[in-house]
Every structure is written in C-alpha cells, then in structure tokens.
Amino acid sequence: MTTATFAKGLEGIIASETEMSFIDGQAGILEYVGIPIGELAAHGTFEESVYLLWNRRLPNKGELESFSAELHSYTGLPAGMSGRLLALPMQAHPMHVIRTMISALSMHDEDPNSVDLDEVRAKAMRILARAPTIVAFFDRYRRGLPLIEPRADLSFAQNFLYMLNGEVPTEAMARAFDICMITHADHGLNNSTFAARVIISTLSDIYSALTGAIGSLRGPLHGGANEGVMKMLWEIPTLNDVEPFILGKLERKEKIMGFGHRVYKSHDPRASELKTLAKQLASDTGNTDLYEKSSKIEEVMGTAVAAKGIYANVDFYSATTYHCLGLKLDLFTPMFVLARLSGWSGHILEQLADNRLYRPKAQYVGPHDAPYVPMDQR
Ligand code: CMC
C-alpha cells in the first residue's frame, strides 16, 4: 500500500509531465520549450509560439508560413454558428458566451469525440482560429454593429482587432496585442490547464475539456483577476489615494487583485513584459494615470507584503494594456482564453499521447458507523 499525502489545493504536487513550459517560481523564470518568455515576447509572434508549443521546436520560414496560413484559413464560423450567436442574450458576459460557443462548436463537428492525436490537433487548430471570431462577432452584435467577416490575410492579432473595430490596427497596436497573446499562451499546470487535462484523461473530447478549462479560467482567483484589477484602478480616485486604499484593503484582509501567485514567489516574468508594454501604451493613448496608479500600487505592495512573496502577476499590467488597446472590461478575461486555448490544446495532446486517468483520493474526515435515524425521529 502506498502512503498518501494531503496537500490542500494540491500545492507542490507534481501531477503530470510536460515539455511545453518550464517555471522556476523562486527565480521568476518562464520558458516555452526552453526559450525564455522575454525572448519570445521580444522577437516572436503568437503563431510561432503556438507552433513551438505544439511541436516542441521553432518552425523554419516555410513551416511557419504554412502553419499560419492553415490557422488563418479556419477563422470563419461553420454554417449555423452565427445564427446561434445572434440568438444569445445581449447582456450575457462574453466569458459565458465563449464557453458556450466553444462547447457548441462540437455540434458542428462530424466526429467530435475522436481522440486520435492527428484529428484532435486539427480540431485544436480550428477552435483556436474560430475563438477570436466568436468574441468579435458577439461584441459587435451587442453593440448593434454589423458583423465583420475574418480576413485570412491578416495575422491572428491583426484579424481579431480588425473584426472587433472594423479597421486594420496600427502595427504598434497589433504588436502589443500579439505580445499579450504570447505571454498568456501557456503556463504549466495552472488550474484551467489541469481542468482540461483531468477532463480529457477520461477520453472525453477536446470540446468538453476546453469548455471546462474556460469555466475554470473565469474565476477571480485565476484569469478573472484582470477584470478585478481594472475595477480597482477605477475605484481609486487619484494617485494620492492609492496608499490608504491598498493599506485599508490589506488591513481588512482583502486580496489585491493582480497580486500573488501559487508558484511565483519572487516575480512573475510575464508581469515585467506587460509592465513595459502598459507603460508605452498608456503614454501613447493618454492613459498615464492608470499606469501611474498601477506603479504606485506595486510600490505600496512592495513595502507591505513583498516579504510574504506577493508580487504583481500577469493579470496586473494586462488590465492597463487591454484598456489602452480599447477593449471593454468584460473582454479582458476572454483575451486570456484566446491565447490560452493554445496551451490547453497542447496539454490535451500531451495527455492523450501518454494518458492515465486522473483519480486522486479525498481524505474522509466525517463520522463512521453513524445510526440511520428513521424519518419521524430526525
Ligand atoms: N493580496 C493580499 N494578500 C494576498 C494576496 C493578494 N493578492 N495573495 C495572497 N495573499 C496572502 C493571503 O491572504 C495569505 O495570507 P495569510 O497567510 O496571512 O493568510 C497568503 O498571502 C497566502 O495566500 P493564498 O491565497 O493561500 O495563496 P495561494 O497560493 O493559494 O493563492 C492566488 C494564489 C493567486 C490565488 C492568490 O495570490 C490570490 O488570490 N491573488 C489575487 C487573485 C489574482 O491576482 N489571481 C491571478 C493569479 S495569476 C494569473 C492566473 O493564474 O490566472
């Protein structure tokens, strides 16, 4: 008999192997297939990062061109999907919309349940391509604007902003969005990725696994934190109010959204990348107050709680970045979905390639030999 250990929240437990991303939480390192995230953010593209994650190597020029062309060719929605989308309540949160529509895509797939690796990979490609179209269509529909069909000649980042805003974005805006996608693509066995791997380990289907992962990501302790950050920035009236606001929250034992991480205990390298981006975009778009408030929050948190290993995480500066890119608050977490679909799919493929059902145990802490009390005596 093996001895079992109990770790609340599975902290420190290694539950799977991956060749995709490496994280050293003490040193603040994140690598995709060995390449530091800063290098990819500085020189790579989202399409190239997805190829890297799915193939465990960088593509050559021809490989990247054909991979990108294939991805971009699937951006249109299957017949019937737009109608389904236009029947949704306009006030629905886009996270509920994308979760529902990714699930609905399974009904437009002739063989949704296949767990053959090549077929799952092809499904992953189609889902990744269509997710931005779903989000952009829904946002335009609720704004009462005509839908804009995707353009296969544009990059993933350009095409999404084009479908959302009706014009091809500037190079700087597209590049900024691309960097957001790169930095959010994969991150070890985070909660939503674990959810995806748990679901696919029953040999269920990729649609179910991704639907579950989106549900997990929505939570405010995970991807939903970026919305919380923006609300906090709006709630703080001026730069001078930052310190009393943050200290007051800490005193009341309230969490500061965009800070802390289960794994990173020195700094989150994605936050450093996004901080640089947020600063530039804030200055370009007249939002320096948001950047200054963010920077001040970081300073106050540094004095108050850094000793406990609580630092800004990926969600903190992504809030200002997305706001400066002109995205509405409730589209922030869906942006995380657009990027992370690539990581989730990579993990689903890894899991299927060497599957074993996830089935941990619970430590029972209730009574034993309890009497069955008849109904009239309870
Ligand atoms: N603000 C204030 N105190 C915090 C924070 C925070 N953001 N995060 C952790 N702490 C404190 C917490 O109160 C606890 O203190 P004490 O030991 O005195 O009770 C201690 O640090 C340990 O916290 P924990 O919640 O047990 O740590 P965890 O590893 O379970 O949680 C976390 C990690 C990300 C859930 C947590 O830091 C948190 O809730 N942060 C705010 C939400 C957030 O920004 N989430 C995004 C995470 S990164 C991107 C992603 O995963 O999507």
Description:
By secondary structure, the chain is mainly alpha-helical. It folds into two domains: 17-219 and 338-353, Orthogonal Bundle (Citrate Synthase, domain 1), CATH 1.10.580.10; 225-324, Cytochrome P450-Terp, domain 2 (Cytochrome p450-Terp, domain 2, Orthogonal Bundle), CATH 1.10.230.10. It has 16 helices and three strands. It has helices spanning 37-43, 46-55, 61-73, 81-86, 94-105, 117-142, 156-165, 171-184, 191-200, 206-217, 225-235, 242-251, 269-284, 288-305, 314-324, 332-353, and strands spanning 21-24, 29-32, 35-36. Strands 1-2-3 form a three-stranded antiparallel sheet. A hairpin with a 4-residue loop joins strand 1 and strand 2 (29-32). The radius of gyration is 22 Å and the shape is globular.
